[in-house]
Design brief:
Shape: elongated
Number of domains: 3
Largest sheet: 5 strands, mixed
């Protein structure tokens, strides 16, 4: 982990650029065709147009037999078979659409739960398949994809026609050269399909006008592409993602599983610490006291006071060490300093750090004890990571309460000036912190470019 100047915990998305000249509206319009987003949107349209046409055609072709009204048993069976096949195909297409959106647009659409085939007769299974709301929404998206694909095709034609028109002054001297007395037929500018070409060129100077028209098409193209892609993304999020209630249930199930796993791991750690630490020392103390009792003599045996004193001293030392280990174990479960408050606990944590730590905590309202405990242990883990791995010279810890219209959030930020490169995906301790924070609907954000600084922000609800 690595970081910034102590106490200066920026937003999760990093600090805003300083000293940059604001981009004007005219610059945004002129630079839009060269932006990375314009390239991504155009590439997505290029892939989405044939994919949308093929998907819509496949669903319509499979669903077609069910639209044929027939009173015969065979017609009913064929119709039901067509609906079932269309539902199965739509689910597959939904997964493909989500994958394309994730790869080309970076749009992470949460996949709905897979279809669970119920046990029972064929009637029960058929009823479950026909009630599959996820598949029906995927069918709706596949059919609505056709008009979207037309809009995306139209947006692509603006790109193609714009580039073609801007090439007129280049190829005109090569292919349209003629004697001055010759009369050449006019050449129309390339225009998107819905519009008639109203720009023509009969001379090389006229081709410059066509090029200007092409530049105008290129300036319009990224905004038109962005519009149809935005509509596609909204429709995909609405129809291809897991429902809000379904996703909430899944999140709660995962959070519950993480809490159970963490509780089991904590109990195992406590048992291991007691077995390998305090229990061993208490057993040694009991043995030393037993041998000291023997050295003191009994039934007229001579006293060995020197040896007995040595054994009692050893037992006394073992008792003190056992108390220290038990005190550390209790502190690891719930630090007593949290009884005073999170701000004081963070200050105590910083005082025991091997590197300088600056703490800034403004907490007019105390969170619940569970939230305070999670925040404290997360800050302790992040501070330990900075000390061990980052090579930082200073660390900043900032704790504050962010109030909004709906709720209040406890935000704890830890930053340092170390080497950077912290990544929860590499299986580091940050992944464990992310699971602990997620168990109470919190969020952990990491910004740690190579070379630093590292900013890690934890947001927790005020109540668990």
């Amino acid at each position: 982990m690595s970081g910034t100047a102590p106490g200066d915990v920026a937003s999760p998305h990093g600090p805003a650029p300083r000293g940059d000249v604001p981009v004007t509206l005219a610059e945004r319009v002129l630079l839009a065709p060269f932006s990375p987003r314009a390239r991504r949107d155009a590439l997505y349209c290029l892939v989405s147009v044939p994919l949308g046409i093929a998907g819509c055609a496949a669903v319509a072709w499979v669903l077609g037999p069910s639209l044929v009204v027939s009173a015969s048993v065979l017609g009913t069976v064929v119709g039901l078979l067509g609906v079932v096949l269309a539902l199965r195909l739509a689910r597959r297409l939904g997964g493909l659409y989500r994958w394309v959106a994730a790869r080309l647009l970076g749009e992470q659409i949460t996949a709905p739960p897979p279809f669970r085939r119920p046990a029972g007769s064929i009637i029960v299974r058929l009823d479950a398949r026909l009630r599959d709301g996820v598949a029906w929404r995927a069918i709706g998206y596949s059919l609505l994809k056709l008009p979207l694909a037309y809009g995306q095709f139209l947006a692509l034609t603006f790109w193609v026609c714009g580039l073609a028109d801007m090439s007129y002054p280049v190829w005109w001297p090569l292919f349209r050269s003629a004697s001055p007395a010759a009369t050449l037929s006019p050449v129309s500018a390339a225009t998107p399909p819905p519009f008639d070409s109203f720009v023509h060129a009969t001379t090389w100077a006229g081709s410059l006008l066509v090029a200007i028209f092409g530049a105008a098409l290129l300036l319009i193209a990224p905004w038109l592409t962005r519009g149809v892609v935005t509509a596609d993304r909204w429709l995909a999020r609405s129809l291809l993602s897991a429902g809000t209630l379904t996703q909430r249930v899944r999140d709660l199930e995962q959070a519950r599983a993480r809490v159970v796993d963490d509780s089991v791991a904590l109990l195992r750690q406590v048992e291991r610490d007691l077995h390998d630490g305090a229990q061993v020392r208490l057993a040694a103390m009991a043995m030393n006291l037993g041998m000291a009792k023997e050295k003191l003599g009994a039934d007229g045996q001579p006293l060995d006071v020197r040896r007995a004193r040595e054994l009692v001293d050893a037992a006394h030392l073992g008792a003190k060490e056992a108390l220290v280990e038990l005190r550390e174990l209790v502190r690891g479960i719930h630090p007593p300093v949290l009884e005073v408050g999170l701000a004081e606990a963070l200050a105590t944590l910083a005082a025991g750090s091997a590197i300088p730590v600056r703490v800034s905590a403004e907490l007019p309202v105390r969170p619940t004890p569970a939230i305070e405990t999670i925040a404290y242990f997360c800050a302790a883990e992040l501070l330990a990571n900075a000390t061990k791995h980052s090579g930082a010279n200073k660390v900043g810890i900032n704790a504050e309460i962010i109030d909004s219209e709906r709720t209040s959030v406890l935000r704890v930020g830890v930053c340092d000036d170390g080497a950077g490169g912290a990544d929860p995906a590499r299986g580091s301790g940050l992944a464990g912190l992310e699971r602990r924070v997620g168990a109470v609907d919190g969020r952990l954000t990491v910004s740690s470019p190579a070379g630093g600084p590292t900013r890690i922000t934890i947001e927790l609800p005020m109540k668990a």
